[in-house]
Amino acid sequence: MPVPVQSNSAPQAIGAYSQGMVHDGLLYLSGQIPLDPVSGRMVEGDFALQIRQVLDNLQAVCAAAGGRLQNAIKLQVYLTDLGHFAQVNQAMEAEFAPPYPARAVVQVAALPRGAQVEIDGIVALGEAD
Predict the structure, then answer these.
(1) Which of 47, 39, 35, 43 is nearest to 79 (CA)?
(2) Range of the domain at 14
């Protein structure tokens, strides 16, 4: 049976969903946007700061499940502007070591709270680092 994951170090869900769900050794991460978990406000300005906040939020949920974002199997990146694609690659190269997670990047018309980026994914738990 799937087990919900909750982290106080990541923004609280803004809808009817869990931050993550664990099933059969996998953590299914709900999408995270660049919300500061303390203030509840969007990180604004430089896109690099926004994607950093998203990755930090995802890592917080991973930690609550006993895992690490670096053990991601698949990431789905949603952008409101594909012009940020190169910055996404830079952030991924800084966050992960080869072999990199499988990934898709898609442009969408809009994201919650006017965010420019949202990322969800699947992470293997119990993996050796």
Answers:
(1) 47
(2) 3-124
